[in-house]
Specification:
elongated; 343 residues; five-stranded mixed sheet
């Protein structure tokens, strides 16, 4: 599954549109059941409960020690405010706040074939709207949402990536081969860890800040597996672009130098959060080229040759912001070798 900036068609379970169908499961509803089938909802097959998943789950009235994870992708119920999920055959309800039209996976005591009632309260009040879902006997895990979401174009440079799966995942398969952050064809160094006890949320933290105004791809392969060993339903690629970073500071190193011959200066460009900005054009000038002459310069480095004795300021400028180095030249004639050439 590729989620591109061009808005290519997404797989059905990753849709950002609400999909509500009436009457698709009348056997589960009964002839007079007014509930709609919430087909956008993602319901996992039953999972053997762990101490982590059991936290906050009521098994009262349930003959199972299994849980199903229920989630709703963003945008599924745009006006939704809160959802209450409960097992129709018995058990207390689990309440979740709806954010951006969806909610992350929540564990509900249930067995295969159980009907779950979902009551959605809409913004602005009014009666809750009833929906139902049926717990499947088998289902492969999918990606519920990511942060950043697909096609976002203003991602901060110091971002970490969040991936939410539809059910607990096997930590053995959480590797840099199965979850990658790419800039072009380059796989970036990043750490991976679960962000919750249930192991449905993965956090990817890049080892270095991202580059401004740059396209990235967050890739999840089918090497990822759930606790039953089932592979991810489909590989997912999320494309996003970082924000155009504004230059906040330019630092020249060393800030001062006393030379008789030559020296090398380096420059670091940063944004307001202190992130290093790569690829920003840098221009170099000397206040007195008879004292300090720039032999060559790049966006990261300048090679300076001393001339006559004196003091000159070398300035590096990027994005309208400048940094400086004070160059003092002493006894330059003593350092001169007839015929010597510099780069």
């Amino acid at each position: 599954m590729v989620l591109t900036r061009s808005g290519a068609r997404m797989a059905a379970h990753f849709t950002l549109a609400a999909t509500l169908a009436v009457g698709a499961c009348r056997d589960a509803q009964g002839p007079d059941d007014p509930s709609d089938v919430l087909t956008a909802a993602i319901v996992s097959n039953p999972v053997r409960v762990s101490s982590a998943s059991a936290a906050g789950v009521s098994f009262r009235g349930s003959a199972t020690d299994m849980v199903a994870f229920v989630s709703l992708p963003p945008g599924s119920v745009p006006d939704g405010e809160r959802a209450v999920i409960r097992r129709r055959a018995g058990g207390s309800g689990v309440s979740r706040t709806i954010v951006d039209g969806g909610f992350d996976p929540v564990a509900v005591a249930a067995a295969a074939g159980d009907t779950l009632d979902i009551e959605v309260t809409m913004a602005g009040g009014g009666a809750a709207h009833p929906f139902i879902v049926v717990v499947p006997a088998d289902r492969r895990p999918i990606v519920v949402r990511t942060d950043p979401p697909p096609t976002r174009r203003d991602v901060p440079l110091n971002s970490t990536m969040l991936i939410v799966f539809s059910e607990p995942m096997d930590g053995v398969t959480l590797t840099s081969a199965n979850v990658r952050l790419l800039r072009g064809t380059e796989a970036l160094v990043a750490s991976l860890e679960f962000g919750d006890p249930d192991q449905v949320t993965v956090v990817l933290a890049p080892a270095a800040p991202l580059r401004g105004g740059t396209d990235y791809r967050l890739v999840m392969t089918q090497g990822l597996r759930d606790l039953d060993g089932d592979a991810l339903e489909a590989a997912v690629t999320v494309e996003f672009t970082t924000a155009e970073a504004e230059v906040a500071s330019v630092t020249v190193t060393p800030a001062s130098a006393t030379i008789t011959d030559t020296t090398t200066l380096s420059v670091t460009v940063r944004d307001a959060q202190g992130n290093i900005l790569h690829g920003h054009p840098v221009s170099w000038t000397s206040s007195d080229t008879t004292v300090a002459r720039l032999l060559w310069a790049t966006d990261t480095t300048a090679f300076v040759q001393g001339g006559r004795a004196g003091v000159a300021t070398v300035t590096a400028t990027s994005g309208g912001v400048s940094g400086f180095a004070v160059i003092s030249v002493t006894d330059p004639a003593a350092a001169r070798t007839p015929g010597r050439r510099f780069p």
